[in-house]
Amino acid sequence: MVGRLILGVGLGVGLSLALAAGQARADDVTGVWLRESGASKVKFAPCGGAVCGTLVWIKEGTDTPAKVGQRLFSDMKSTGPNAWAGSYNNPDDGKTYDAKMTLSGSTLTTAGCAFGGVICRSSTWTRAN
């Protein structure tokens, strides 16, 4: 009887830990992401109390003013489950915009917005690692 109780408690704890680990992973945006066009990759990593995204790869022959090593996303802080907000530095025009990003499974959607979020341009990314 005691053996079954210990086994049951052990399985319950193991299942709880596995579920907690799965939930922690569900909103983990860190890592390398490939843009939908296949032209670039950004690495999201902790920076201070937020997350930042740095350009780590550009497909050869891509016409862009962006440079590998350039920080594109800054100060991205959690706004809820699988959602962040911060700043996007657009290499095309050199301006900084409000940014939002949401994670759904292995798909990350980012958006740079102007005029208080009235006009937004979004991109879709998939995990590259």
TrEMBL record:
Signal peptide limits: 1-26
Ranges where the DUF2147 domain occurs: 31-127
Transmembrane intervals: none
Pfam families, alphabetized: DUF2147
Entry keyword set: Signal
Source organism superkingdom: Bacteria
Protein name: DUF2147 domain-containing protein
Source species: Bradyrhizobium denitrificans
Upper taxonomic lineage: Bacteria, Pseudomonadati, Pseudomonadota, Alphaproteobacteria, Hyphomicrobiales
